[in-house]
Design goal:
Two copies of one chain form a homodimer.
Chain A: H1 12-24, H2 37-44, H3 48-60, E1 64-67, E2 71-74, E3 79-81, H4 89-95, E4 100-111, H5 114-120, E5 127-137, E6 140-149, H6 166-174, E7 180-189, H7 192-198, E8 205-214, E9 220-229, E10 233-240
Parallel strand pairs in A: 3-10
Antiparallel strand pairs in A: 1-2, 4-5, 5-6, 6-9, 7-8, 8-9
Helix pairs in contact in A: 1-3, 2-3
Chain A binds a DNA duplex through residues 10-12, 36-38, 46-50, 52-53, 66-72, 201.
Chain lengths: 242, 242
DNA sequence: AAGTGGTCTAGACCACGCC
DNA sequence: GCGTGGTCTAGACCACTTT
Protein backbone atom coordinates (compact mmCIF):
# COMPACT_ATOMS: atom_id res chain seq x y z
CA UNK A 1 0.00 0.00 0.00
CA UNK A 2 1.48 3.30 -1.11
CA UNK A 3 0.28 6.63 0.11
CA UNK A 4 -1.10 9.81 -1.24
CA UNK A 5 1.34 12.71 -1.13
CA UNK A 6 2.98 13.10 2.24
CA UNK A 7 0.19 11.70 4.39
CA UNK A 8 1.46 10.69 7.81
CA UNK A 9 0.64 7.01 7.96
CA UNK A 10 1.92 6.65 11.48
CA UNK A 11 -1.31 8.17 12.71
CA UNK A 12 -4.62 6.46 12.42
CA UNK A 13 -6.19 9.16 10.26
CA UNK A 14 -3.23 8.90 7.93
CA UNK A 15 -3.66 5.14 7.72
CA UNK A 16 -7.37 5.71 7.17
CA UNK A 17 -6.66 8.08 4.28
CA UNK A 18 -4.28 5.73 2.58
CA UNK A 19 -6.75 2.86 2.70
CA UNK A 20 -9.64 5.11 1.68
CA UNK A 21 -7.61 6.34 -1.28
CA UNK A 22 -7.17 2.80 -2.52
CA UNK A 23 -10.88 2.12 -2.27
CA UNK A 24 -11.89 5.35 -3.98
CA UNK A 25 -9.31 4.91 -6.73
CA UNK A 26 -11.00 1.66 -7.56
CA UNK A 27 -7.95 -0.50 -6.77
CA UNK A 28 -10.35 -2.53 -4.65
CA UNK A 29 -13.78 -3.41 -5.97
CA UNK A 30 -16.97 -4.03 -4.07
CA UNK A 31 -16.66 -6.85 -1.58
CA UNK A 32 -12.92 -7.11 -2.22
CA UNK A 33 -10.90 -8.25 0.75
CA UNK A 34 -8.39 -5.87 2.30
CA UNK A 35 -4.89 -7.01 3.25
CA UNK A 36 -4.65 -8.41 6.76
CA UNK A 37 -4.18 -6.06 9.70
CA UNK A 38 -0.61 -7.24 10.20
CA UNK A 39 0.17 -6.65 6.54
CA UNK A 40 -1.29 -3.14 6.69
CA UNK A 41 0.85 -2.61 9.78
CA UNK A 42 4.11 -3.46 8.06
CA UNK A 43 3.14 -1.25 5.12
CA UNK A 44 2.83 1.77 7.39
CA UNK A 45 5.11 1.20 10.36
CA UNK A 46 2.21 1.74 12.76
CA UNK A 47 1.26 -0.46 15.68
CA UNK A 48 -1.59 -2.85 15.10
CA UNK A 49 -3.88 -0.90 17.43
CA UNK A 50 -3.40 2.15 15.24
CA UNK A 51 -4.26 0.20 12.10
CA UNK A 52 -7.38 -1.11 13.80
CA UNK A 53 -8.43 2.40 14.85
CA UNK A 54 -8.24 3.37 11.17
CA UNK A 55 -10.30 0.35 10.15
CA UNK A 56 -12.96 1.15 12.80
CA UNK A 57 -13.12 4.68 11.43
CA UNK A 58 -13.71 3.40 7.89
CA UNK A 59 -16.31 0.99 9.19
CA UNK A 60 -18.20 3.83 10.89
CA UNK A 61 -18.12 5.73 7.61
CA UNK A 62 -19.62 2.76 5.83
CA UNK A 63 -16.69 2.24 3.45
CA UNK A 64 -15.73 -1.17 4.75
CA UNK A 65 -17.30 -3.95 6.75
CA UNK A 66 -15.95 -7.08 8.38
CA UNK A 67 -16.71 -10.71 8.63
CA UNK A 68 -15.85 -12.00 12.07
CA UNK A 69 -12.35 -13.37 12.21
CA UNK A 70 -12.20 -13.52 8.45
CA UNK A 71 -11.23 -10.08 7.28
CA UNK A 72 -12.19 -6.60 6.19
CA UNK A 73 -14.08 -6.01 2.94
CA UNK A 74 -15.10 -3.07 0.77
CA UNK A 75 -18.75 -2.12 1.25
CA UNK A 76 -21.03 -2.24 -1.79
CA UNK A 77 -23.30 0.70 -2.62
CA UNK A 78 -26.29 1.05 -0.30
CA UNK A 79 -29.70 0.12 -1.58
CA UNK A 80 -32.48 2.66 -1.62
CA UNK A 81 -35.39 1.90 0.63
CA UNK A 82 -38.74 3.58 0.30
CA UNK A 83 -40.95 2.64 3.23
CA UNK A 84 -44.00 4.03 1.46
CA UNK A 85 -43.72 1.62 -1.44
CA UNK A 86 -45.61 -1.60 -1.19
CA UNK A 87 -44.31 -3.93 -3.81
CA UNK A 88 -41.81 -5.15 -1.27
CA UNK A 89 -38.14 -5.65 -0.63
CA UNK A 90 -37.69 -8.40 -3.21
CA UNK A 91 -38.84 -6.34 -6.16
CA UNK A 92 -37.19 -3.03 -5.40
CA UNK A 93 -33.86 -4.63 -4.68
CA UNK A 94 -34.12 -6.39 -8.04
CA UNK A 95 -35.10 -3.11 -9.67
CA UNK A 96 -31.75 -1.71 -8.52
CA UNK A 97 -29.88 -4.51 -10.24
CA UNK A 98 -29.10 -6.34 -7.03
CA UNK A 99 -29.88 -9.84 -5.87
CA UNK A 100 -32.39 -10.06 -3.00
CA UNK A 101 -33.10 -13.04 -0.82
CA UNK A 102 -35.47 -13.57 2.10
CA UNK A 103 -35.10 -16.27 4.66
CA UNK A 104 -37.80 -17.19 7.13
CA UNK A 105 -36.05 -17.77 10.44
CA UNK A 106 -39.08 -18.91 12.31
CA UNK A 107 -42.69 -18.30 13.25
CA UNK A 108 -44.59 -18.70 16.45
CA UNK A 109 -47.59 -17.57 18.40
CA UNK A 110 -46.79 -15.27 21.30
CA UNK A 111 -48.70 -13.67 24.13
CA UNK A 112 -48.90 -9.92 23.69
CA UNK A 113 -46.69 -7.96 26.06
CA UNK A 114 -48.01 -4.72 27.46
CA UNK A 115 -46.29 -2.76 24.67
CA UNK A 116 -47.63 -5.04 21.93
CA UNK A 117 -51.10 -5.05 23.43
CA UNK A 118 -51.06 -1.28 23.41
CA UNK A 119 -50.06 -1.15 19.76
CA UNK A 120 -52.65 -3.68 18.61
CA UNK A 121 -55.39 -2.47 20.92
CA UNK A 122 -55.86 -5.94 22.41
CA UNK A 123 -55.65 -7.24 25.96
CA UNK A 124 -52.23 -8.09 27.33
CA UNK A 125 -51.73 -11.82 26.93
CA UNK A 126 -53.76 -12.06 23.73
CA UNK A 127 -52.27 -14.30 21.06
CA UNK A 128 -50.29 -12.77 18.18
CA UNK A 129 -48.41 -14.27 15.29
CA UNK A 130 -44.71 -13.56 15.29
CA UNK A 131 -42.44 -13.94 12.25
CA UNK A 132 -38.69 -13.55 12.17
CA UNK A 133 -37.01 -13.11 8.82
CA UNK A 134 -33.56 -12.28 7.51
CA UNK A 135 -33.06 -10.50 4.22
CA UNK A 136 -30.05 -10.38 1.95
CA UNK A 137 -28.66 -8.25 -0.85
CA UNK A 138 -26.11 -10.01 -3.04
CA UNK A 139 -25.76 -12.72 -0.39
CA UNK A 140 -24.88 -10.25 2.34
CA UNK A 141 -27.34 -10.20 5.23
CA UNK A 142 -28.56 -6.61 5.51
CA UNK A 143 -31.50 -6.78 7.91
CA UNK A 144 -33.38 -8.92 10.37
CA UNK A 145 -37.00 -8.24 11.10
CA UNK A 146 -39.63 -9.29 13.55
CA UNK A 147 -43.24 -8.97 12.40
CA UNK A 148 -46.38 -9.24 14.48
CA UNK A 149 -49.85 -9.83 13.07
CA UNK A 150 -53.20 -10.15 14.82
CA UNK A 151 -54.59 -13.65 14.08
CA UNK A 152 -58.11 -12.31 14.07
CA UNK A 153 -57.32 -10.38 10.89
CA UNK A 154 -55.46 -13.23 9.22
CA UNK A 155 -56.33 -16.62 10.72
CA UNK A 156 -54.00 -19.37 9.58
CA UNK A 157 -51.45 -16.88 8.23
CA UNK A 158 -48.49 -19.01 9.34
CA UNK A 159 -49.53 -21.78 6.94
CA UNK A 160 -48.88 -19.60 3.93
CA UNK A 161 -45.64 -18.99 2.10
CA UNK A 162 -43.91 -16.19 3.99
CA UNK A 163 -40.67 -15.95 2.04
CA UNK A 164 -41.85 -13.00 -0.01
CA UNK A 165 -43.99 -9.96 0.59
CA UNK A 166 -46.19 -10.35 3.64
CA UNK A 167 -48.33 -7.43 2.60
CA UNK A 168 -49.13 -9.20 -0.66
CA UNK A 169 -50.19 -12.31 1.22
CA UNK A 170 -52.44 -10.30 3.51
CA UNK A 171 -54.03 -8.55 0.57
CA UNK A 172 -54.47 -11.62 -1.61
CA UNK A 173 -55.51 -14.16 0.98
CA UNK A 174 -57.33 -12.06 3.52
CA UNK A 175 -58.42 -8.94 1.60
CA UNK A 176 -56.67 -6.87 4.25
CA UNK A 177 -55.52 -3.59 2.80
CA UNK A 178 -53.15 -1.04 4.24
CA UNK A 179 -54.45 2.50 4.38
CA UNK A 180 -51.92 4.21 6.64
CA UNK A 181 -48.43 3.63 7.98
CA UNK A 182 -46.56 4.94 10.94
CA UNK A 183 -42.85 4.58 10.30
CA UNK A 184 -40.10 5.29 12.82
CA UNK A 185 -36.41 5.30 12.06
CA UNK A 186 -33.73 5.54 14.67
CA UNK A 187 -29.99 5.03 14.62
CA UNK A 188 -29.16 2.28 17.08
CA UNK A 189 -26.55 -0.28 17.97
CA UNK A 190 -27.12 -3.85 16.89
CA UNK A 191 -27.36 -5.81 20.09
CA UNK A 192 -26.66 -9.44 20.76
CA UNK A 193 -29.64 -11.04 19.00
CA UNK A 194 -29.66 -8.86 15.87
CA UNK A 195 -25.90 -8.85 15.57
CA UNK A 196 -25.77 -12.62 15.77
CA UNK A 197 -28.47 -12.94 13.11
CA UNK A 198 -26.55 -10.58 10.81
CA UNK A 199 -23.28 -12.26 11.73
CA UNK A 200 -21.66 -9.01 12.77
CA UNK A 201 -20.04 -7.91 15.96
CA UNK A 202 -22.45 -6.81 18.66
CA UNK A 203 -22.48 -3.05 18.98
CA UNK A 204 -22.12 -2.25 15.31
CA UNK A 205 -24.20 0.79 14.41
CA UNK A 206 -27.47 0.08 12.69
CA UNK A 207 -30.78 1.61 11.81
CA UNK A 208 -34.00 0.47 13.41
CA UNK A 209 -36.99 0.91 11.13
CA UNK A 210 -40.34 0.33 12.79
CA UNK A 211 -43.55 0.21 10.81
CA UNK A 212 -47.11 0.00 12.03
CA UNK A 213 -49.63 -0.56 9.23
CA UNK A 214 -53.29 0.30 9.66
CA UNK A 215 -56.28 -0.56 7.51
CA UNK A 216 -59.05 1.86 6.60
CA UNK A 217 -60.84 1.13 9.87
CA UNK A 218 -57.73 2.03 11.85
CA UNK A 219 -57.01 -1.55 12.89
CA UNK A 220 -53.36 -2.57 13.14
CA UNK A 221 -52.57 -4.88 10.24
CA UNK A 222 -48.89 -5.44 10.83
CA UNK A 223 -46.19 -4.34 13.25
CA UNK A 224 -42.70 -4.68 11.87
CA UNK A 225 -39.28 -4.03 13.41
CA UNK A 226 -36.40 -4.06 10.95
CA UNK A 227 -32.79 -3.90 12.11
CA UNK A 228 -30.57 -2.80 9.23
CA UNK A 229 -26.83 -2.69 8.81
CA UNK A 230 -26.02 1.00 8.80
CA UNK A 231 -24.05 0.82 5.57
CA UNK A 232 -26.64 -1.12 3.55
CA UNK A 233 -29.36 1.42 3.42
CA UNK A 234 -30.50 4.77 2.18
CA UNK A 235 -34.04 5.81 2.97
CA UNK A 236 -35.81 7.89 0.38
CA UNK A 237 -39.36 9.15 0.71
CA UNK A 238 -41.49 11.30 -1.53
CA UNK A 239 -44.21 13.10 0.35
CA UNK A 240 -47.06 15.30 -0.76
CA UNK A 241 -47.78 18.15 1.61
CA UNK A 242 -51.23 19.35 2.69
CA UNK B 1 -18.93 1.86 40.62
CA UNK B 2 -20.31 -1.44 41.78
CA UNK B 3 -21.46 -4.15 39.47
CA UNK B 4 -24.53 -6.14 38.68
CA UNK B 5 -24.37 -9.73 39.83
CA UNK B 6 -21.20 -11.47 38.75
CA UNK B 7 -20.48 -9.50 35.58
CA UNK B 8 -16.86 -9.81 34.52
CA UNK B 9 -15.65 -6.24 34.53
CA UNK B 10 -12.24 -7.15 33.24
CA UNK B 11 -13.65 -7.41 29.74
CA UNK B 12 -14.95 -4.45 27.84
CA UNK B 13 -18.50 -5.78 27.55
CA UNK B 14 -18.52 -6.31 31.30
CA UNK B 15 -17.33 -2.76 31.87
CA UNK B 16 -19.98 -1.62 29.38
CA UNK B 17 -22.69 -3.44 31.31
CA UNK B 18 -21.68 -2.00 34.64
CA UNK B 19 -21.72 1.55 33.30
CA UNK B 20 -24.97 0.96 31.40
CA UNK B 21 -26.56 -0.39 34.58
CA UNK B 22 -25.75 2.83 36.41
CA UNK B 23 -27.29 4.91 33.66
CA UNK B 24 -30.43 2.81 33.39
CA UNK B 25 -30.87 2.66 37.16
CA UNK B 26 -31.05 6.42 37.11
CA UNK B 27 -27.93 6.91 39.26
CA UNK B 28 -26.80 9.27 36.55
CA UNK B 29 -29.26 11.74 35.08
CA UNK B 30 -29.34 13.23 31.60
CA UNK B 31 -26.17 15.12 30.75
CA UNK B 32 -24.53 13.93 33.96
CA UNK B 33 -20.78 13.53 33.71
CA UNK B 34 -19.26 10.08 34.08
CA UNK B 35 -16.21 9.45 36.27
CA UNK B 36 -12.93 9.90 34.41
CA UNK B 37 -11.50 7.02 32.41
CA UNK B 38 -8.73 6.50 34.93
CA UNK B 39 -11.25 6.38 37.77
CA UNK B 40 -13.37 3.83 35.92
CA UNK B 41 -10.19 1.86 35.38
CA UNK B 42 -9.34 1.61 39.07
CA UNK B 43 -12.93 0.64 39.82
CA UNK B 44 -12.70 -2.37 37.51
CA UNK B 45 -9.07 -3.42 37.37
CA UNK B 46 -9.09 -3.19 33.57
CA UNK B 47 -6.53 -1.42 31.42
CA UNK B 48 -7.49 2.01 30.15
CA UNK B 49 -7.82 0.74 26.59
CA UNK B 50 -10.45 -1.72 27.76
CA UNK B 51 -12.39 1.00 29.54
CA UNK B 52 -12.26 3.12 26.40
CA UNK B 53 -13.52 0.23 24.26
CA UNK B 54 -16.52 0.02 26.60
CA UNK B 55 -17.12 3.76 26.34
CA UNK B 56 -16.96 3.63 22.52
CA UNK B 57 -19.50 0.84 22.59
CA UNK B 58 -21.88 2.92 24.71
CA UNK B 59 -21.32 5.89 22.44
CA UNK B 60 -22.28 3.81 19.39
CA UNK B 61 -25.41 2.73 21.21
CA UNK B 62 -26.31 6.35 21.86
CA UNK B 63 -26.26 6.06 25.66
CA UNK B 64 -23.38 8.44 26.19
CA UNK B 65 -21.61 11.18 24.29
CA UNK B 66 -18.40 13.08 24.82
CA UNK B 67 -17.15 16.59 24.81
CA UNK B 68 -13.65 16.72 23.42
CA UNK B 69 -11.07 16.48 26.16
CA UNK B 70 -13.69 17.28 28.75
CA UNK B 71 -15.41 14.02 29.56
CA UNK B 72 -18.18 11.53 28.91
CA UNK B 73 -21.81 12.43 29.53
CA UNK B 74 -25.16 10.66 29.63
CA UNK B 75 -27.19 11.22 26.46
CA UNK B 76 -30.60 12.85 26.83
CA UNK B 77 -33.64 11.29 25.13
CA UNK B 78 -33.72 11.76 21.35
CA UNK B 79 -36.15 14.22 19.89
CA UNK B 80 -38.75 13.09 17.42
CA UNK B 81 -38.39 14.53 13.96
CA UNK B 82 -41.19 14.45 11.44
CA UNK B 83 -39.93 15.60 8.05
CA UNK B 84 -43.48 15.96 6.80
CA UNK B 85 -44.40 18.53 9.42
CA UNK B 86 -43.93 22.13 8.49
CA UNK B 87 -44.18 24.18 11.61
CA UNK B 88 -40.45 23.78 11.97
CA UNK B 89 -37.73 22.59 14.27
CA UNK B 90 -38.25 25.36 16.84
CA UNK B 91 -41.87 24.55 17.54
CA UNK B 92 -41.76 20.78 17.59
CA UNK B 93 -38.75 20.73 19.86
CA UNK B 94 -40.64 23.04 22.21
CA UNK B 95 -43.70 20.81 21.94
CA UNK B 96 -41.58 17.99 23.35
CA UNK B 97 -40.69 20.05 26.37
CA UNK B 98 -37.16 20.76 25.19
CA UNK B 99 -35.34 23.99 24.56
CA UNK B 100 -34.52 24.66 20.88
CA UNK B 101 -32.10 27.20 19.50
CA UNK B 102 -31.07 28.08 15.97
CA UNK B 103 -27.90 29.84 15.09
CA UNK B 104 -27.22 31.31 11.68
CA UNK B 105 -23.60 30.49 10.89
CA UNK B 106 -23.45 32.43 7.65
CA UNK B 107 -25.02 33.16 4.32
CA UNK B 108 -23.59 33.70 0.90
CA UNK B 109 -24.29 33.56 -2.78
CA UNK B 110 -22.67 30.65 -4.57
CA UNK B 111 -22.32 29.47 -8.13
CA UNK B 112 -24.26 26.29 -8.71
CA UNK B 113 -22.09 23.20 -9.05
CA UNK B 114 -23.12 20.58 -11.58
CA UNK B 115 -24.98 18.65 -8.86
CA UNK B 116 -26.79 21.73 -7.56
CA UNK B 117 -27.65 22.89 -11.09
CA UNK B 118 -29.16 19.49 -11.76
CA UNK B 119 -31.30 19.64 -8.64
CA UNK B 120 -32.57 23.16 -9.27
CA UNK B 121 -32.88 22.77 -13.02
CA UNK B 122 -30.67 25.80 -13.69
CA UNK B 123 -27.43 26.22 -15.62
CA UNK B 124 -24.20 25.32 -13.88
CA UNK B 125 -22.71 28.53 -12.53
CA UNK B 126 -26.06 30.16 -11.84
CA UNK B 127 -26.29 32.05 -8.56
CA UNK B 128 -27.90 30.41 -5.52
CA UNK B 129 -28.36 31.52 -1.95
CA UNK B 130 -26.58 29.37 0.60
CA UNK B 131 -27.37 29.36 4.32
CA UNK B 132 -25.51 27.50 7.01
CA UNK B 133 -27.20 27.03 10.35
CA UNK B 134 -26.59 25.14 13.55
CA UNK B 135 -29.43 23.95 15.73
CA UNK B 136 -29.49 23.07 19.40
CA UNK B 137 -31.64 21.13 21.82
CA UNK B 138 -31.13 22.09 25.46
CA UNK B 139 -27.90 23.85 24.50
CA UNK B 140 -26.43 20.75 22.90
CA UNK B 141 -25.68 21.16 19.19
CA UNK B 142 -27.60 18.41 17.41
CA UNK B 143 -27.38 19.30 13.73
CA UNK B 144 -25.73 21.51 11.15
CA UNK B 145 -27.47 22.25 7.92
CA UNK B 146 -26.73 23.81 4.59
CA UNK B 147 -29.70 25.19 2.68
CA UNK B 148 -29.83 26.33 -0.92
CA UNK B 149 -32.57 28.54 -2.39
CA UNK B 150 -33.04 29.88 -5.90
CA UNK B 151 -32.93 33.71 -5.74
CA UNK B 152 -35.46 33.95 -8.53
CA UNK B 153 -38.09 32.49 -6.22
CA UNK B 154 -37.12 34.58 -3.22
CA UNK B 155 -35.14 37.69 -4.20
CA UNK B 156 -33.55 39.40 -1.24
CA UNK B 157 -34.11 36.38 1.03
CA UNK B 158 -30.83 36.89 2.84
CA UNK B 159 -32.03 40.25 4.22
CA UNK B 160 -34.75 38.58 6.25
CA UNK B 161 -34.52 37.06 9.70
CA UNK B 162 -33.28 33.50 9.14
CA UNK B 163 -32.99 32.33 12.74
CA UNK B 164 -36.35 30.55 12.67
CA UNK B 165 -38.34 28.61 10.13
CA UNK B 166 -37.18 29.26 6.60
CA UNK B 167 -40.31 27.71 5.19
CA UNK B 168 -42.40 30.24 7.12
CA UNK B 169 -40.36 33.10 5.69
CA UNK B 170 -40.76 31.78 2.17
CA UNK B 171 -44.49 31.40 2.64
CA UNK B 172 -45.08 34.73 4.35
CA UNK B 173 -42.76 36.96 2.38
CA UNK B 174 -42.77 35.34 -1.03
CA UNK B 175 -46.04 33.37 -1.14
CA UNK B 176 -43.97 30.31 -2.02
CA UNK B 177 -45.69 27.17 -0.85
CA UNK B 178 -44.33 23.64 -0.60
CA UNK B 179 -46.41 20.98 -2.32
CA UNK B 180 -44.04 18.01 -2.31
CA UNK B 181 -40.89 16.86 -0.57
CA UNK B 182 -38.22 14.38 -1.43
CA UNK B 183 -36.47 13.30 1.74
CA UNK B 184 -33.41 11.09 1.92
CA UNK B 185 -31.92 9.71 5.10
CA UNK B 186 -28.64 7.91 5.29
CA UNK B 187 -26.39 6.87 8.14
CA UNK B 188 -23.02 8.51 7.68
CA UNK B 189 -19.91 9.55 9.50
CA UNK B 190 -19.58 13.18 10.49
CA UNK B 191 -16.56 14.43 8.61
CA UNK B 192 -14.22 17.26 9.40
CA UNK B 193 -16.49 20.24 8.68
CA UNK B 194 -19.67 18.89 10.26
CA UNK B 195 -17.86 17.40 13.22
CA UNK B 196 -16.11 20.68 13.93
CA UNK B 197 -19.42 22.58 13.74
CA UNK B 198 -21.00 20.11 16.18
CA UNK B 199 -17.84 20.10 18.31
CA UNK B 200 -17.54 16.35 18.17
CA UNK B 201 -14.77 14.08 17.07
CA UNK B 202 -14.52 13.59 13.34
CA UNK B 203 -15.82 10.18 12.36
CA UNK B 204 -18.64 10.00 14.87
CA UNK B 205 -21.69 8.31 13.35
CA UNK B 206 -24.43 10.62 12.20
CA UNK B 207 -27.50 10.79 10.07
CA UNK B 208 -27.64 12.80 6.88
CA UNK B 209 -31.14 14.05 6.13
CA UNK B 210 -31.55 15.62 2.72
CA UNK B 211 -34.73 17.41 1.72
CA UNK B 212 -35.76 18.82 -1.62
CA UNK B 213 -38.95 20.85 -1.47
CA UNK B 214 -41.03 21.50 -4.55
CA UNK B 215 -43.92 23.89 -5.12
CA UNK B 216 -47.11 23.02 -6.98
CA UNK B 217 -45.43 23.81 -10.31
CA UNK B 218 -42.63 21.36 -9.57
CA UNK B 219 -40.02 24.07 -9.04
CA UNK B 220 -37.39 23.46 -6.36
CA UNK B 221 -38.13 25.73 -3.43
CA UNK B 222 -35.42 24.64 -1.06
CA UNK B 223 -32.60 22.11 -0.91
CA UNK B 224 -31.51 21.24 2.59
CA UNK B 225 -28.75 18.99 3.92
CA UNK B 226 -28.94 18.28 7.64
CA UNK B 227 -26.19 16.46 9.47
CA UNK B 228 -27.52 15.13 12.77
CA UNK B 229 -25.83 13.58 15.75
CA UNK B 230 -26.90 9.96 15.61
CA UNK B 231 -28.12 9.95 19.20
CA UNK B 232 -30.23 13.09 19.00
CA UNK B 233 -32.86 11.97 16.59
CA UNK B 234 -35.75 9.69 15.95
CA UNK B 235 -37.55 10.05 12.65
CA UNK B 236 -41.27 9.43 12.67
CA UNK B 237 -43.51 9.66 9.63
CA UNK B 238 -47.19 9.03 9.19
CA UNK B 239 -48.11 8.16 5.64
CA UNK B 240 -51.39 7.52 3.91
CA UNK B 241 -51.25 4.82 1.29
CA UNK B 242 -52.91 4.81 -2.12
C1' DA C 1 -1.92 -26.22 11.14
C1' DA C 2 -1.60 -21.58 9.92
C1' DG C 3 -3.41 -17.21 9.77
C1' DT C 4 -6.90 -14.08 11.00
C1' DG C 5 -9.31 -10.87 13.77
C1' DG C 6 -10.74 -10.06 18.89
C1' DT C 7 -9.15 -8.76 23.06
C1' DC C 8 -6.17 -7.29 26.59
C1' DT C 9 -2.08 -5.25 29.18
C1' DA C 10 0.97 -1.60 30.87
C1' DG C 11 3.11 1.59 29.94
C1' DA C 12 3.97 6.56 27.37
C1' DC C 13 3.49 11.43 25.58
C1' DC C 14 0.66 15.17 23.89
C1' DA C 15 -3.00 18.88 23.28
C1' DC C 16 -6.46 20.87 25.29
C1' DG C 17 -10.30 22.14 28.78
C1' DC C 18 -10.93 23.87 33.08
C1' DC C 19 -9.83 26.29 37.13
C1' DG D 1 -0.82 23.85 36.14
C1' DC D 2 -3.44 19.87 36.75
C1' DG D 3 -6.42 16.53 34.95
C1' DT D 4 -8.73 15.09 30.99
C1' DG D 5 -9.31 12.62 26.92
C1' DG D 6 -6.63 11.45 22.36
C1' DT D 7 -3.26 8.78 20.58
C1' DC D 8 0.34 5.52 20.23
C1' DT D 9 3.60 1.47 21.17
C1' DA D 10 4.92 -3.36 21.58
C1' DG D 11 4.05 -6.87 23.11
C1' DA D 12 0.63 -11.16 24.41
C1' DC D 13 -2.97 -14.94 24.22
C1' DC D 14 -7.31 -16.69 22.50
C1' DA D 15 -11.17 -18.19 19.36
C1' DC D 16 -12.28 -18.77 15.19
C1' DT D 17 -12.01 -19.24 9.91
C1' DT D 18 -9.73 -20.96 6.30
C1' DT D 19 -6.92 -24.13 3.83
Amino acid sequence: MDLPDGADTRHYLGVRDSIAAHIENGDLGHNACLPSERQLQSGTGAARGTVRAALFQLEAEGLIYRKERSGWYVSPAPIVYDPTRWEGFMSYVKAQGRDPKTELLGTCEVQATAALADIFGVDAGATLYELRRRRYVDDRAVLVETIYVDPRLAPGLLDHDLDGSLTQVLKREYVVDVARNRIDMQPCALTQAEAAALRVKSGLPGLLVTRISYDAQGRVVEYDQEYWRHDALKVSVDIRVG
